[in-house]
Design brief:
Trna Endonuclease, Chain: A, domain 1; 6-stranded antiparallel β-sheet; 18% helix; globular; binds zinc ion
Length: 244
């Protein structure tokens, strides 16, 4: 078996594990709806999730150079042409920062991602739907693309927080791994403070970074029970210790 065959085989196996009920096909051809040309797809996943058909196109790049913005742009054209809902580029040589930015900021109907082959075992093909943008049939349009998680430490206890953006509307989402709750920040709404089941309070801090751009950051703090006077609670510290 050649190197690239082994590489594709491993990716294929990973996809088979992640999508056990799907049809996973290698080396497929689909006639492009715009190009009217036969397009070759390394791995095609046909999955049925929440009552809709999902077409996932996987392109296995085995390069001696990093994926750059040009590769991403041609891949965008390709996924649009074949009518994929999800497009994944797998690379064994990494990618440039601008290539990743292009992927992360592509807020359209297609969800894109780049995966480094080295980390494929840690990658999860989770499609968390965004409930802020739905189509006329009430089906979520976008999926949440999660970034690197970060840790929130309170009183020596660590909670892992995922933060991501919707692939369609671009709104920020956070997920508390402590309780599994997903919090969505709707920039059109005034209520930008959310609480998860572990009583962590999430909010967004918007900071001006110049050139007319703002950077949004998720801010987390622990709920303090005696903070609002309506719910004033006195906690016996010894009692708390007992129950911890
Ligand atoms: Zn959305
Ligand atoms: Zn939580």
């Amino acid at each position: 078996m050649k190197d690239w065959e082994k590489y594709e085989e491993q990716i294929f196996e990973k996809l088979s594990d992640e999508f056990p009920d799907s049809n996973i096909l290698k080396n497929q051809k689909i006639t492009g709806k715009y190009s009217n040309r036969s397009r070759q797809i390394d791995i095609l996943v046909k999955s049925e999730s929440i009552g809709r058909n999902l077409l996932i196109a996987v392109d296995c790049k085995m390069f001696n150079k990093k994926i750059d913005i040009k590769t991403v742009e041609s891949f965008i054209g390709f996924t649009e042409d074949i009518g994929a809902h999800v497009g994944i580029l797998i690379t064994n040589k990494g990618y440039s920062k601008s290539a990743l930015n292009r992927v992360k900021n592509y807020h359209r109907d297609i969800q894109l991602d780049i995966i480094e082959f080295e980390y494929i075992d840690d990658y999860h093909f989770s499609w968390d739907d965004c409930y802020l943008c739905k189509d006329e049939y009430d089906i979520p349009r976008g999926r949440i693309i999660w970034n690197e998680p970060f840790g929130f430490i309170d009183d020596g206890a660590l909670t892992i927080i995922d933060n991501g953006k919707c692939s369609y509307c671009g709104e920020i989402h956070a997920k508390c791994q402590g309780c599994g709750m997903t919090l969505e920040f709707d920039s059109n709404s005034t209520d930008e403070i959310h609480e998860c089941y572990c009583e962590n309070i999430f909010s967004i801090k918007s900071e001006y970074i110049g050139r007319g751009m703002y950077e949004n950051q998720i801010i987390i703090r622990k709920k303090i029970n005696n903070e609002d006077d309506d719910n004033f609670e006195v906690n016996d510290p010894n009692q708390i210790k007992l129950f911890e």
